[in-house]
Amino acid sequence: MIRNYLKIALRNFLKQKSYSLINITGLTIGMTCCFLIVLFVIDELRYERHHVNAENIYRVVVNSTIGDQEMNEAITPTPLAETLMMDFPEVRNVIRLHHTPNMLVRYEDKVFNESQFMWVDSTFFDIFSARLLHGDPKTALKDHHTLVMTETTAKKYFDDPAQALGKIVNFEDGTPYRISGICEDAPPNSHFHYGMLCPLSSWEWENIRPYWLNSYVYTYVLLQDGFPPEQLEAKFPGFIRTHVAPQLEQSLGMSINQFYESGGKLDYLLQPLKDIHLHSNLSNELEANSDIKYIYIFSLIALFILCIAAINFMNLATAKSTTRNKEVGMRKVLGSNRSQLVKQFLCESILISLVAMVLSIFLAELLLPYFNQIAAKQLDIRLFHELYLLPGLFVITLLIGILAGSYPALFLASFKPILVLNRSDARGMVSRAGLRSLLVVLQFSITIFLFISTFVVFQQMRYIQNKRLGFDKENIVVIKRGWAIGQNPDGTEQAPSNNTTVLDAFKHELLQNANIIAAAGTGSLPGKSFYNMVCIPDGKDDSEQMSLNYFLADYDFMETMNLELVEGRYFSRDVAGDTLAVVINETAARAMGLEAPVVGNRIGFPNSKFHLHIVGVIKDFNYESLHRKIEPLCIGLQTNTRTFIAARIQPHDVPNTIAHIEKTWKSFIPYKPFEYFFFSDDYDQLYRSEQRQSKLFTIFSILAIAIACLGLLGLASFTTEQRAKEIGVRKVLGSSIAGIILKLSKEFIKWILVANIFAWPLAWLSSSRWLQNFAYRSELNIWIFVLASGTALCIALLTVSTQVIKAATANPVKTLRYE
Amino acid sequence: MIKLIDIEKYYANKFVKTFVLRNISLDIQEGEFLTIMGPSGAGKSTLLHIVGMLDDMSSGEYYFYDEPVHQLKEKDRTRLHQQNIGFVFQQYHLIDDLTVYENLETPLIYKKVKGSERKSMVADMLDRFSIVAKKDLFPNQLSGGQQQLVAIARALIINPKLILADEPTGNLNSKQGFEIMDMLKELNDQGVTIVQVTHDEKKAEYGNRIVNLLDGWMEESGT
């Protein structure tokens, strides 16, 4: 029986080529999208699964409120780990980690800047499951001045990583480190990656900062198997009173009780390792994490697209079923019962969905590199490696086949055989146009929804690009590792000569090129990290503390960044004693309750007689991403700060300008590599996840409308075919071609207009929720909705017009002859 | 074999009932060759369809070998018709997408006859109707007479007790028509009950009893 079904299915499939093609194309595209998204989602959900102890590893994070600023930080004080281990028996093991983004490592003549350099405790390999390829995991990180590198890193320095063991490399300051192990690369789905691991005990700051109020390291704990983390968390308040309170009291000048009473907060929390990637968005994350929200959004999109494709399938099958009702009637006369007919039609739809699935596997394989690029992933399709994948795909195929085929099957099988057999015109039977319209409306609701969302994301991205940030982000070249300027080869500081620092000399040399307008050394840049301090505004007492972001920069910072001054002055070489001067932003002035003239006020500190003098107020600028409101900021002066050296350049002749900068660098420090980036590129990284999202959104919504239009095309060709006789009669009766086109298009227009009713409110809700992520956002404008719907309508009309025009211009004599 | 009591068939809309059949009572004995005659629109085909269980009656009782068809569920009705009744139509109604062989095979598939048995039954039937050479052709590659031959073969393959023929020769030329009628007569001689609908006097005479329908009313005229 099944063979008979398949035979019929195949013949029908070949006989109605265009229908089959539309069905399969739509379904293939839909399934491919879905497939890729599912791969993406699975990958996102599988972070940290490679650790044997994944279930029992937690990261300790700090949640604190000082003054009115709440801070959620992924980093913790240095002594925390050790103390936890001593105080709590349920903590089986601990590991601390400190990330150094720039570490110059030299082996013989090979010098590389290692950006994934980690100082770690020797327990690293006990807690995390990283396999050591060479060396002994027990001892690899035990000794001072040893180093473990990953295989990939080792390949940069050595031809054969196996030979690396025991070799000596030198750090920037010349310290020799012995390679004690080569480990596997961290898998892509880890929340942090490393190229080199060094014992934390070799880290120079380690022992000089046993402070509980400053956070420097990431702390991970391994709990006893199955130990509930809440129970440990419950003990933290006591722990804080014992260990942190003394230092807190000393530094803030108030007891811990007073601190709590004044609204202060300090909590340690445990984050399950597996949740970090999707559920953690704290300050100082090791790498930018993803968000579970995106998982939901993309899963929903996958479902949407699949839904659109399935509806196509369903609609076309029901529509074309009318051409098959004679067969159905005859089969019933021959003794088929309903269930046999239903099975036959399901067989056909499952066959189509199977073909589509096989095609989509190939297509997905083909598109995967591009998808990886956009999604910043390293996905691959390993059909036979994953136990669930093939059966899963098969089940999905079956489900789609059944879902898409069930309605036509039930519908066809319910024909009264006599009714269909007796019609001389087998096509005259009108299938449920009502349900079909409903499904098309549903399709277009989804499509228009995706369209509006895309437009909103786009508008917000444009808003971000064009928003006046308060500084000029274009045409700035930033030199990395600027601290090398003025350092001797052994890492010691060169003494300033003739009252000018080496930095000044370097800047002076840069400005010799006419294309370099200004240059400044600075400790931070917009989008980078800042220090934070607790201070007390002038004239207030110790209980009115507030927190203030700050960084240090030199005399030329304001000019280089094109910041705007609203009051007072910026630091000047002509004024002596600017070392205690600061410039604050408008928000800081407001937060301190200062009225103009702000200049002349002072900033105090708890428990201290020390003061800073405000010499100027700069206009607010977005020194953090637009996700966040502008916070109080203060800039201090340091003439030889040079984490970054920023240079404002002319937009033309950039390669030569860069060459000049490099030449200057080489003339100052021939033995250190020159590295730079364009500030605007770096700043745009702040919105990388949104940009990625907007790209994917665009692609998927285009695909969605493509699939929906494909269905529309099929339906249009079907209805015009079905109404050929009516059109013929109308033309004979004198209707114009335009009139007929209008008449035929009207129905499609109606569907799409109705779809807006569903799409708009939903899109409004979801878009405004998405925009909430930005402190600075574009307004939701009705025109976006009109534009999105208009675009969808135009595309749909263009699609149907080919069929409609063909039908309207057909010679009526031909269509009527066969009656 | 078949007993119809007071069968009525009408289509009702809001205001009027349009009657197609009125008060039809009819007994059909096993082995009979019954002809239903009447002008267009008299209700002949409807009556035939009701007898063949393809259509429902509006009221009345229908017994098929003492089984009350009017009370049966669709499933049981399908079984009854699947086992006992073969149809022949004026438009042949072969399935266009299936070859002659497959057309013959289809009713057997629905009857859940085993594959090997099916093969021999189809082969027998092809043999009997001398259409072996045509078994791989599709219906549209055959002449009308040949198509009707296949249709009859298809009706016969389930060994029906009853064959219902709705103007079986209506689309054929006279030579082909008489050949088909001879075929039916021969089957009747072998014991198959046949009910045919026609408005051709000559074809009607093949039967041994004639029933006339006019505007849904029945009058019997013996032979």
What does the secondary structure layout of this molecule look like, with pairings?
The complex is a heterodimer of chains A (about 800) and B (about 220).
Chain A: H1 2-15, H2 17-45, E1 57-66, E2 69-73, H3 80-87, E3 91-100, E4 103-107, E5 110-114, E6 117-120, H4 124-127, E7 132-134, E8 146-150, H5 151-157, E9 168-171, E10 176-183, E11 196-199, E12 218-223, H6 229-243, H7 245-252, H8 256-261, E13 265-272, H9 276-279, H10 292-321, H11 325-333, H12 338-375, H13 389-413, H14 417-422, H15 433-466, E14 476-479, H16 502-510, E15 516-522, E16 531-537, E17 546-553, H17 557-561, E18 565-568, E19 581-585, H18 586-591, E20 602-604, E21 611-618, E22 633-637, E23 644-649, H19 654-668, E24 676-678, H20 679-684, H21 688-722, H22 724-732, H23 737-771, H24 782-809, H25 812-817
Parallel strand pairs in A: 6-11, 8-10, 17-22, 19-21
Antiparallel strand pairs in A: 1-2, 1-12, 1-13, 3-6, 3-12, 4-5, 4-9, 7-10, 8-11, 9-10, 14-23, 14-24, 15-23, 16-17, 16-20, 18-21, 19-22, 20-21
Helix pairs in contact in A: 1-12, 2-10, 2-12, 2-21, 10-13, 10-15, 10-21, 12-13, 15-21, 15-23, 15-24, 21-22, 21-24, 23-24
Chain B: E1 2-12, E2 17-28, E3 33-37, H1 44-51, E4 59-64, E5 67-68, H2 74-84, E6 85-88, H3 100-110, H4 115-128, H5 144-156, E7 162-166, H6 174-189, E8 193-197, H7 201-204, E9 209-214, E10 217-222
Parallel strand pairs in B: 3-8, 3-9, 6-7, 7-8
Antiparallel strand pairs in B: 1-2, 1-4, 4-5, 9-10
Helix pairs in contact in B: 3-4, 3-5
